[in-house]
Amino acid sequence: TTITTTETALPLPIGPFRGIDYGTPSGSGGTSRFNAQIDADMSVIAKIGNVVRLYTVSNGMEYAVTSAIAHGLQVIPSAYLVDPNAPGGSAANDAEIANVIAVLKDPSSDLSKIPFIDVGSDFLTNNPAQHDYLAGRIKFVKDQLPSVMVTSSDSASIYANTDVGSWVDVIFPTFSPFSQGGAVTVGSANTFFRLLYGPLAEKFTTKNI
Question: What global pTM score does this model have?
Answer without folding.
Answer: 0.84
